[in-house]
Amino acid sequence: MTRTWDAVVVGAGLCGVRVAEELIAAGLSVRLLDAGPRLQLGATCPEPDRRTWGFKADGGSYDWYRVRAVGGRSWLWGGWCYRFDQRALERAGWPRRARRLAAAYRRVERRLGVVEGLVDERYRRVAEEIGSRALPKRGAMSSPSTAWNATSASAAQRAGTWEVALHVETKGHHATCVETLDLRKEKRRQVRARAIVLAASPVETARILLRSDVDAARWGIGRNFTDHMVASVVLLEPVPPPPRDGRGPFPGAALIENFVNVDDASRQPYRGGFSVEVSGPVSLPSLGIERMVPGAEVDQWSATQVHAMGEVFPDPQRYVDLHPELRDAWDRPVPFIHMGWSDADRAMAQDIKQACISIADLMAVPGSRVIPFHDPLLAGAGHEAGTCMMGDHGAGACNGDGRLRALANVWIADASVMPTPGDRHPSLTLLAHATRVGHAVKRWIASR
Questions:
Q1: Which domains does the chain have, with CATH numbers?
Q2: What local confidence, expressed as pLDDT, does residue 301 receive?
Q3: Sign of dihedral through CA atoms 26, 30, 32, 38?
């Protein structure tokens, strides 16, 4: 006989592990699946082979950051843990129910052991000069230099590895199972469950549903795709980096809070906002940029990263569908990512680029250099969102709890549901959403 689990969770990254933790703690039987291996903490996480795990982007215009391993993109995470404020949630159109995140935020912060650093005076001064404020870094770190990794969670130790979710089998308005491919045995199987949670990333979750018997056009699955717009510069200063001692748990790291579209006076010709993460000063070798100064002078220079994240709203020219011809190594149609920039997007790109340069200039000592590092119109920040967007009153693919409107027993725990990626790092908010999904699934199972 085929076992029927209480829940199957697809994707053992930050969100999938968080949901599995909630469900396992409630005494439910949970099958957590991941398409990659289980790596040891401290290992080097390899980039997926693009010939095996293929995708296509319009004109090669999108860089899809992926990790095929238990832990997902927590392997690439810097541990930044900021809450979205209510203005940002309202601006982006989060459903009323979904905006109630305070309890979930607190639960996640306790679970991760989030701590707060100190703000360097120069960041505070610069933020005031541009009409903003500098917030201390709030972070989840397993050591002073290593961010918390989902692999360390007990739920992740139970994850099934090398198992690729192909599609969801349906009967009426319910899902009956997830069909998977065991890459080690090259064998398909059906994983049956009362509830199904998709947490495979907005692109991969969309592919699974686009290959399932779901009316994708009706529910907008794959549409509304978005990602952060990122601008970065590095400030090189001809002074040695200061010692770490006495500078708190995250020396030299802070967030300069969003200061556009927060009131009538800050209104811009685009809808989103942006925040700026600053980190430094640190040695040049720690960033791998020691060749930017003569070798004999490396120890006499320091570097500060200035990294802006702009909130991009959905646009009809940005969406994900399946390529009509290209297949990956497992004979699946590859995701086809369509990107394009509106006039409003280009206006924000100019603003966030200039904000990075202005902040670096305000901090710089005489003899410094500002090096452009990332252009905001080069798409792909690793914070994609929106392909199964949630909405109020029957609008959107999901309700405020992340439940798919097309299938009564399917929830989405990753950023697919988010109308935008927000005006700052989204990981804490994603984990809060995943926590709420876990509670919603528990309530649903208990009611049956």
A1: 4-42+53-446 (3.50.50.60)
A2: 97
A3: positive
pLDDT digits (tens, 9 = 90+) for 336-393: 999 999 999 999 999 999 999 999 999 999 999 999 999 999 989 999 999 999 999 8
Return d(Cα 95, Cα 258) in angstroms, integer.
Answer: 22
In the prediction, which pLDDT does 1 show?
46
SS (H, E, C) the chain: CCCEEEEEEECCCHHHHHHHHHHHHCCCCEEEECCCCCCCCCCCCCCCCCCCCCCEEHHHCECCCCCCCCCHHHHCCCCECCCCCHHHHHHHCCCCHHHCCHHHHHHHHHHHCCEECCCCHHHHHHHHHCCCCEEECEECEEECCEECCHHHCHHHHCCECCEEEEEEEEECCEEEEEEEEECCCCEEEEEEEEEEEECCCHHHHHHHHHCCCCCHHHHCCCCCCECCEEEEEEEEECCCCCCCCCCCCCCCEEEECCCCCCCHHHCCCCCCCEEEEEEEEECHHHHCCHHHCCHHHHHHCEEEEEEEEECCCCCCCCEEEEEEEEECCCCCEEEEEECCCCHHHHHHHHHHHHHHHHHHHHHCCCCCEEEEEECCCCECCCCCECCCCECCCCCCCECCCCEECCCCCEEECCHHHCCCCCCCCCHHHHHHHHHHHHHHHHHHHHCC
Identify the pLDDT of residue 126: 97
How many CA atoms does the CB half-sphere of 389 hold within 13 Å? 28
pLDDT in tens, 143-152: 877 899 999 9
Residue closest to 268 by CA, chosen among 339, 340, 346, 341: 346
The strand pairing partners of 80, in sequence order, are: 139
Average confidence score pLDDT of the chain: 95
Query: Is residue 446's pLDDT more than 60?
Result: yes
- Cα 351 from Cα 361, distance rounded (Å): 15
C-alpha 311/C-alpha 255 separation (Å) is 15
Angle between helices 14-25 and 102-112 (to 10 degrees): 100
* Residue 404 confidence (pLDDT) above 70: yes
Over residues 386-411, the mean pLDDT reads 96
**From CA 216, how far away is CA 257, in angstroms rounded?**
37
In this prediction, residues 256-278 reach a mean pLDDT of: 96
- The pTM assigned to this predicted structure is 0.96
Q: What is the mean pLDDT of residues 261-269?
A: 94
Find the radius of gyration of the CA atoms of the chain.
Answer: 22
Whether residue 36 is predicted with pLDDT greater than 70 in this model: the reply is: yes
